[in-house]
Amino acid sequence: MQSAVPVRPRPERPPAAPRRYAERASRQLQLPFEQERPLWAAPQFEAALSRAAGRSVRLTLTENRSVLLSYRRVDGSFLLRLHRMFLFAPESVLVALGRHLRRRCRRADGEVRRFMNENLHRVRTLPRTLPALVPDGRSYDLACVFDSLNARFFGSALKVPITWGRGGGRGGGGRARRGGLTFGSYDPVLRLIRIHPVLDRREVPLYFLESVVYHEMLHHHLGGVPDRAGRTVYHSRAFRAAERSYPMHSQALGWEKANLSYLLKASRELERERHSDRRAPRA
User: By the 8 A CB rule, do 64 and 228 touch?
Assistant: First the structure.
């Protein structure tokens, strides 16, 4: 049975981002990191990590934006490649990294993962600004959807802005990248959730929209998990198990499968409207 969908009249102009979103966003984007000094020099870090790992570590620092941590064992030593962000790591993270290298402590893996997720701003050299937030749509208010899920599943602990996106299938790594259509995405640098505007219509049941938003909230909450090769895995077993805890998960997958062609067609129509608006002469 399809959930009732609240219908809202289209506003005459796009609503301004609520003050609480703007204030929260400004706090998230205060990035004084250029003035921050590393906690470690490279030789210091290498020596301390060797002690924590219980064997010699040969460290190479990188600016790699894709692989933040990778290592292999050669002749009893660890050949470790780390992003330079780790020079800002507190000693507790260094100790956890040593335990991670020895593969002896899952809690240590979690501490290393949290540090990487919380320091992704150090991966990018160019500053990024938060776009204008438009959570209030024609049929759904994303702020209300987010607040409901936050209360039901996260104890209202998540603090992350959410907005309707521009469409066009952007935002890699999001939910349901099928046929070139991405329903939602989470930007770990801006800590921002975007939802495809094709879902802002009365034909889309509330439980399906909730499943997409919940998926992106999990990305913010759980982050990525480094595998043994140092690659970051976002859709881990823990993530999939948490995703299945949404009560209407199976129904949402079924609705998506039955209506994907309709959503793809609607997405193309939205894209044509957007391009038409760009070409229209301004008064």
Answer: no
pTM of the predicted model as reported, rounded to 2 decimal places: 0.59
- Distance, in Å, from the CA atom of 116 to the CA atom of 150, rounded to the nearest integer, reads 24
The model's pLDDT over 166-220, given as tens digits with 9 standing for 90+, comes to 865 443 334 544 456 889 999 887 889 999 999 999 999 999 999 999 999 999 9
CB 94 within 8 A of CB 48: yes
For residue 234, the enclosing domain spans: 130-279
Residue 5 falls inside a structural domain: no
CA distances from 108 to 27, 45, 101, 104, 112 (A): 29, 17, 10, 8, 6
Give the amino acid at 231: R
pLDDT tens string 43-80: 999 999 999 999 999 999 998 877 888 888 898 899 99
Residue 247 is given by DSSP the state T
Torsion of Cα atoms, 186 then 190 then 196 then 197, to 10°: 150
Residue type, 148: S
Q: Pick from 90, 122, 154: which residue ends a domain?
A: 122
Q: Is residue 2 part of a domain?
A: no
C-alpha closest to that of 120 among 186, 189, 27 = 189
Q: Verify that 108 and 152 share a domain, yes or no.
A: no
